[in-house]
Amino acid sequence: MRPGLIERWRARLPVTAKTPIVTLGEGGTPLVRADRVAKAARLPPGSVYLKLEGLNPTGSFKDRGMTLAVSKALEAGATGVLCASTGNTSASAAAYAARAGLRCVVFLPQGKVAAGKLAQAVMHGAEIVEVAGNFDVALELAKEAAKAKGFTLVNSINPFRLEGQKTGAFEIVEELGRAPDNHFIPVGNAGNITAYWNGYRALGASPRMFGWQAAGAAPIVLGHAVENPSTIATAIRIGHPTSWKGALAARDQSGGAIDKVTDAEILAAYALLAREEGVFCEPASAAPVAGLLKLGRKRKAPEGITVCVLTGHGLKDPGVTARFKPRARRVKAGGAIKL
């Protein structure tokens, strides 16, 4: 079995010889050159790369933090893990808990989790609690339940989650042979932008960090919580990010920005990635590319090497494809087909 990211980056992670490693072979995801995205953003060839985190074991970047969070929970003697989720965290927590032999309970906003993500949590045996409210409500209930039950909370409030997720920055620098000049990333609960910035700083690097929220769920851009966040990008449909301060620190210390894109801009980037670059990601993952294209239209796309992190696979949220007309036709058996 291929080693996971804990073994790969052990010297830079808070583990010891006594830490039981719970892994599914996560990490080591591809960094793909995207010249058609660059052209659409009015940038030169070779200036844009995509970090394909949807190729982690459960199809999202969450596996980076979950391998460490669950390993440390097992080391601490936990009998179970618990989380609130818009989908990807629950899928990852359920898979790693199953691998570790731990009980897993997930709190999900009722009717607001994409089918692909819910299917994973179900099949990995998670106990599902449907909450009549949004993610922020679910997280508060999860925190209370974790304290009452003594389970380990594995949302990004868990520091080991962010420690694991920072390894994405290590991989980017290793593959490029240098740090990128610009790092574009979706922002929902804001743990990932915080983690990547921590990873870059650990290497002495400081790319400009550009975070992108959906216009209907943009509390950091607005400067206040959003009580009823709304966006097609379910993974970033969060109105009160846990790592808000970390995201601001990444933005301010790097000289970057946090901005918003509309659902229409997200869907346009989602389609361009699939049809022009051969990369199928979930809508939230298209937000940073939408942001880059938005800046490109204004001729404000930053110069240098830009890495866009695509956080989840397109099969996580297959229902979104119904918005696009297929290139399909029907023919009779034995009939001639003109192509």
What attributes does this structure have?
339 residues; alpha/beta; six-stranded mixed beta sheet; four-stranded parallel beta sheet; globular
Break the fold down into its secondary structure elements and pairings:
Layout: H1 5-8, E1 31-33, H2 35-40, E2 48-52, H3 62-75, E3 80-84, H4 88-100, E4 103-109, H5 115-123, E5 127-131, H6 135-149, E6 152-153, H7 159-165, H8 167-176, E7 182-186, H9 191-202, E8 208-214, H10 219-222, H11 244-254, E9 257-261, H12 263-276, H13 283-297, E10 306-310
Parallel strand pairs: 2-10, 3-4, 3-6, 4-5, 7-8, 7-10, 8-9
Antiparallel strand pairs: 1-2
What would you say this structure looks like, in words?
The protein is α/β, with parallel strands linked by helices. The chain contains 13 helices and ten strands. It has a six-stranded mixed beta sheet, sandwiched between helices. A four-stranded parallel beta sheet has the order 5-4-3-6, with helices on both faces. α8 packs across α9. The chain is globular and about 60 Å long.
Provide a compact summary of the structure.
40% of the residues lie in helices and 14% in strands. The chain has 339 residues and is α/β, with parallel strands linked by helices.
